[in-house]
Amino acid sequence: CEILSSLPLQMSLYFNVYFFPLWWLITVAILYLKYPVLSDYYKFVLVTIMILVSLTELIRLYLGYVGNLLEKVPELAGFWLLTLLPQLPIILFLLFNEGLKIHSLERAVHIIFAAFLSFQVLTAFFTLRRMVNTLATRFRLTEFHCLEEQCPVPG
């Protein structure tokens, strides 16, 4: 019974749970301050992004906890995909798009959040690979033992 969950991934998820409300508060406060000077296009985009990130982050963190602690491959794969596809590109958009009139505090929290996401993408990938390989090996051994019990060798 080898433990397949990843301690670095779990620590990152733990700190991310406490960092996300801080990131959200700072981002919303700065959005409130710079909202009047933004174009209509960026106003719509930023509000949509905040709603999307908020919903996705809650689901993503839940899947990460369940997938890592309970060693469930589908949940961890969902966590990895939600981190890689919507979250990381959105944070990179918020970090590097100069049309958004980025404040220095906003840039700092986006860099920290992007670092969390990048680290989680890498650790979740290697944890997933280890889990899938171990579970496939267990399955093959179980199948081998079932075949061995059904067909006894003469002698």
TrEMBL record:
Membrane topology per the entry is: Multi-pass membrane protein
- Pfam families named in the record: Transmemb_17
By what name is this protein known? Answer: TMM17 protein
Q: How does it assemble?
A: Part of the tectonic-like complex (also named B9 complex).
**Subcellular location per the Swiss-Prot or TrEMBL entry:** Cell projection, Cilium membrane
Q: Which organism is it from?
A: Rhabdornis inornatus
Give the source lineage, highest ranks first. Eukaryota, Metazoa, Chordata, Craniata, Vertebrata
Role played: Transmembrane component of the tectonic-like complex, a complex localized at the transition zone of primary cilia and acting as a barrier that prevents diffusion of transmembrane proteins between the cilia and plasma membranes. Required for ciliogenesis and sonic hedgehog/SHH signaling.
Please give the superkingdom of this protein's source: Eukaryota
